Structure formats: structure tokens, C-alpha cells
């Protein structure tokens, strides 16, 4: 028979059997405890797949399972501790959470939401690993590119223009030739017009 044993608080030493569900609180409940830190209807504990399940009923100070505040219905196994206010209750007469009597019970337990220590971070219990395939799979190593040897870089030489030799290498020569051409043309014009006038 599943039961709760009160180990601390105003009702310490009391044991309560759970047939279907049990509402715990300060007044008007199945289990009334004179604990000033309890809400009037604080939490409910119910049978679930040969185990128990606890749910907080919107209490002010919260419900804790094994030291973690719960935000969703949480599965309880044998030996689990429920803390409400200053009262601590220990679960007895049910299987621990990690064991099962049949595959059906194990499947039921996996469908119950478990709550992580952080409030509100509910997560589903992990599913069992898939059975191994009948065909063995051989992993092939990924092909790796062979490193190419580094090619030496050729030294950089800026392009150079060949130096001109002779008269053309002098920068004043083109200017002088142009100026001389203008003078010769002017003299020729003067001689032409002087002969035809």
C-alpha cells in the first residue's frame, strides 16, 4: 500500500495511506496539517502506475520534491521526499522511479513529465535507445585532402625602361628642334612676302 510518512513538522510521526488521491493543506483537506507555511489547499498526491504523483495546487510557498521546487505534476518513487512549508513527507510502499515491474508500467512512467531543478523548466524523461539494426554499419573515414607543397615565390622586379643613349637622351633636344623649326618657317615666310610685294 502506498503511503506517506511525516518525518518533520507539526504532524511528525503520522503515516497516511493513499488509495486514490490525497489533498494536503492547512484546512478543509484530506490531510490537514497545522503548519503556518502551508496554503489552505497546498498540494495533492495521487496514485499513478504503481507509484505516486504530486502536484502543487498554486500554493504560496511552493512544493518541493527532493529539494527541487516543482511547477508540473511530478512522479514519485519510494524514498522520495516532499517538502511543503516546514513539513517533510517520505514516500513509502511504491517502487523507486528507476525500476518497473512490467513494460506497461515503465511506459507509463516515461510519459510523466519530470521537472528540472530550475522552476518551470519541465522536460520529458529521455526515451530508451533504439534497438541495434540487424545490418552492421561500417563508418568510413572522411577523405582528407593531401597537403600541397608550398611553391616558392619569385622575387618581384619592377619594370624598368631602357635608358636611351646619344642625343635623344637629352631632354632639351626636342624643345630646341621645335623652336628651330618655328624660326625657319618664320624666316621663309618673311623672304616669300618680301619678294612678292
Distance between the termini: 149 Å
Oligomeric state, counting identical vs distinct chains: single chain
Main-sheet strand order equals 2-1-11-10-7-8
Instruction: Please give the number of β-strands.
Output: 13
* Mean pLDDT rating: 76
Helical percent range?
10-25%
- Count up the helices: 2
Give the CA-based shape.
rod-shaped
Instruction: Summarize the helix and strand pattern as letters.
Output: EEEEEEEEEEEHEEH
Task: Please report which band the strand proportion falls in: under 5%, 5-15%, 15-25%, 25-35%, 35-45% or over 45%.
Answer: 25-35%
The largest sheet is:
6 strands, antiparallel
Rg from Cα: 49 Å
Which structural class do the helices and strands define?
Answer: alpha+beta
What would you say this structure looks like, in words?
There is one protein chain. This protein is an alpha+beta fold. It has helices at 103-110, 173-195, and strands at 3-8, 15-17, 21-25, 31-32, 43-48, 51-56, 63-65, 68-69, 74-76, 81-84, 87-92, 113-115, 122-124. The strands form three sheets. It has a six-stranded antiparallel beta sheet with strand order 2-1-11-10-7-8, with no helix packed on it. It has a five-stranded mixed beta sheet with strand order 4-3-5-6-9, with no helix packed on it. Strand 5 and strand 6 form a beta hairpin. The chain is rod-shaped, with a radius of gyration of 49 Å.
Summarize this structure briefly.
By secondary structure, the protein is an alpha+beta fold. The chain is 16% helix and 26% strand. It contains two helices and 13 strands.
Amino acid at each position: 500500500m502506498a503511503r506517506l510518512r511525516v518525518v518533520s513538522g507539526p504532524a511528525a510521526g503520522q503515516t497516511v495511506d493513499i488509495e486514490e488521491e490525497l489533498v494536503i493543506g492547512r484546512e478543509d483537506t484530506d490531510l490537514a496539517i497545522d503548519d503556518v507555511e502551508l496554503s489552505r489547499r497546498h498540494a495533492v498526491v495521487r496514485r499513478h502506475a504503481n507509484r505516486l504523483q504530486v502536484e502543487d495546487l498554486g500554493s504560496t510557498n511552493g512544493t518541493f520534491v527532493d529539494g527541487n521546487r516543482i511547477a508540473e505534476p511530478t512522479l514519485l518513487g519510494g524514498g522520495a521526499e516532499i517538502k511543503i512549508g516546514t513539513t517533510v513527507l517520505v514516500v513509502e510502499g511504491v517502487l523507486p522511479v528507476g525500476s518497473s515491474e512490467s513494460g506497461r508500467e515503465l511506459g507509463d512512467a516515461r510519459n510523466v513529465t519530470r521537472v528540472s531543478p530550475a522552476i518551470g523548466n519541465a522536460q520529458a524523461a529521455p526515451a530508451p535507445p533504439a534497438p541495434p539494426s540487424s545490418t552492421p554499419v561500417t563508418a568510413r573515414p572522411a577523405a582528407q585532402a593531401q597537403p600541397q607543397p608550398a611553391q616558392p615565390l619569385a622575387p618581384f622586379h619592377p619594370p624598368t625602361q631602357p635608358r636611351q643613349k646619344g642625343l635623344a637622351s637629352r631632354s632639351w633636344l626636342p624643345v630646341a628642334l621645335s623652336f628651330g623649326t618655328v624660326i625657319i618657317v618664320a624666316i621663309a615666310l618673311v623672304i616669300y612676302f618680301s619678294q612678292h610685294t
